[in-house]
Amino acid sequence: MSHHILEVKDLCYCYPDGTPALADINVTIHHGESVGLVGANGAGKSTLLQHLCGSLLPQSGRIRVGDFPVSQGTLHEVRRTVGMVFQDPDDQLFMPTVAEDVAFGPLNIGLTPDEAAVRVDEALRMVGAEHLKNRPPYRLSGGEKRGIAIAAVLACSPDILVMDEPSANLDPRSRRLLIKLLRGFTHTKVVATHDLDLVLDLCERTIVLHEGRIMADGPTKSIFNNSELLYACALEPPLSMQTCPVCNGN
Amino acid sequence: MHMADALLSPTVGGVMWGATACLLGYASSKLKAEKDDSRIPLMGVLGAFIFAAQMINFSIPGTGSSGHLGGGLILAALLGPHAAFLTIASVLAVQALFFADGGLLAMGCNIFNLGFFPCYLAYPLIYKPLAGAVSSRGRLMAASLIAAVAGLQLGAFGVVLQTTASGISELPFSSFVMLMQPIHLGIGVVEGVVTALLLGFLHRVRPELFGAARPATASRPLRPIIIGLALAAMLVGGSMSWFASADPDGLEWAMAKVSGKEELHAPEAGIHGTLDALQKRIAFLPDYNFKSTEEPEAVPAGNEGNTPEPWPNVAVGTSLSGVLGGFMTLCLAGLLGFAVRKFHAKA
Amino acid sequence: MSIENALFELRRLDELARQDTPLHRLDARAKVLATVFFLISLLSLNRYEVARLLPYAAFPWLLAVLGNIPLAVLFRRAALALPFVLMVGLFNPLLDRTVLVHFGPLAVTGGMLSFTSIVLRAILAVTTGLALVAVTGFDNICRALGRMGLPSVFLVQLQFLYRYIFVLAAEATRMMHARSLRCAKSSRPSLREYRSLLGCLLLRTLDRAGRVHQAMLCRGFDGSMPGYGHTTSFGAAEVRFCLVCGLYLVAVRIFDLPLLLGGLAGGLFR
Fold this sequence. Notes:
The complex is a heterotrimer. Chain B has helices spanning 10-34, 39-53, 72-79, 81-99, 107-131, 137-166, 173-205, 207-217, 222-246, 251-259, 270-281, 316-346, and strands at 58-59, 66-67. By secondary structure, chain B is mostly helical. In chain B, a hairpin with a 6-residue loop joins β1 (58-59) and β2. Chain C is globular, with a radius of gyration of 24 Å. Chain C folds into two domains: 3-147, no CATH class; 152-218, no CATH class. Chains A and C meet through α2, β6, α3 and α4 of A and α9 and α10 of C.
């Protein structure tokens, strides 16, 4: 196995009506890296993520996940390697109970019900949600739903965790718990978000997308210190790095 | 309009459940054969949409009343007949289980009335030929309107047939038809207009939906229709003949009016005779010979005491004990319930 | 019914179904079977029967008591379900004026009897259906139906539908709320607004269906849903339950219990 687990080369994508969504994307991500993918609304973050989990296939260029090039024939392997956490947990939690939902992935990759049950317990313990096991998803709070959605992905034991706006719609405490949880994972992580503070807490590397192109790719701190670049990409430095408006930095 | 358990006899309910179960199996196997795995979430979520949409009412212009989407036809247009039939069945199942719209036994009737007619008759026979492959707004409107009206008229007629065949309601067939069909003409027009507006809207913003749906649903649409029609004919025929032998005053009265004859003579042998015999054998079939013409219509007052006749010629004494016994049963049931609750609380 | 009320009702029954009583723990198939048997037994009675319907009340009443279901929940729904039945049933007293019984000056016609019978049937059938859901739960009923042979494609999307009712109803509620905040006068949308409202909701629904499908694919979905683990089995308790219910229902169908009791009471007075 190569030491870089995710490789995107010259990826371009246009919407069916011809509008370009991604142009000349080149990214290489190594084992165990934690990468923040930031950009304004419509910058192409979600489109890129959809390519990483094989929901969209490259129109030009190529993508490599683990040992497999992403193509129609390798989707099964790609999806076992990449675990995608969707922005809206309601899209992801479709089974009648939490336990069945978490078991959905393991059962689909051919585990026996007993093996799947072990995976379910393990995954729920990792996100601290064992007590929610028999609840239906529609009776969970936003933070709980997010946790279960992550557990459902973890139960498939992916090598890479890809997350779309994981902190969206979370209250401050749930958000803090989520960051703590994600920090504890040793997986390779790709986090697409507007929440730059989350990136600052979680990712040592940041990629800035703007209008379908990569504007910057480097250490998080140095990119967030470049406020000119951030403003040019319709972003703002994270609150924790802005000077305090009350005491003005004193 | 949902059929209700209370107006249904187990025979009619059972027969309709049988037909519906066959259709469910047929639609499921068809869907499996199509092997389009994006259908399952699409059906479920669209079903939830229909459910939510039915609770949003709009005011019908020029009248004080309100209307809402029924859903059968738009589902058929978006999903094709098989998936639409299953989806409508699911919506009705949730309504029956949680909101007591219709009932469990009546669910077979309701799925048949509101699912089979729009999905397997109105959609392939009316909507599709009229709307055509590339439909203009006008054609879409006309197709939806006519298909929705036709589907609902058939559905309403189904309700009438099932009710009359069950013989619980006294409403004569013809009066019931005169009551139901015009009401459902209005409902059908509303349904058609709303369906057309929604389809027109989708056509504008998501043309790819319609381009993709056509080839999949266009293959051999005739066979299911013929099977369905044959099934419907058998059902209607079966229930009518059974009914005719059981209850002289409803349908036969209407038929006599239509045909001008005093009475349609049902042969003793044949299906009527068999059904009659069957009915007599199985205690669970309702006995409609109750007020049959051989017996005197009115009850002579003061016919006290031990008459050997069956219940219709009830004597006051017997019926008094019936009423008394009824009260006692209620009290007993109440006592039993309280006892169990007490016991339960302790345990 | 407004969306909020509908959701409330759904949640209410769902909550009741999550209780843990011996009746709740029973295999769902037993309860479904007993209910079907109840309906057949009840509805096969003659249309002029009134008193004989009363013993049937014991079944929903027992389900409610054993399952810890408040009767008010059942009766409120039953009342809301009555209008169509009343509309059709009301013709019975008008059309069937054959006098069957005299109670002093009061002449009871066949139509009056059959009308009462229809109303009673409706109440009994509706309360029993709701009690079944409240002591079993929707998912368990679906599973039971699956184990009794209904096609899985149907049941899977039935469960999807139930799952997404909560999501879509919440979306619809937000849209209606946003609309009503911006128009003070009319409470109901016009046809034009209705089209836009529903059109938007439909688009969002289609998008959501696409996303749900993506999420399923991402977790290895290949067209067939994984089988559910069956936690309950049809054991001795289920057999007992079915037997007791079955025997009682057969008994009240064959014997005129109220008449027997009444006769007994009449004998005492004589």
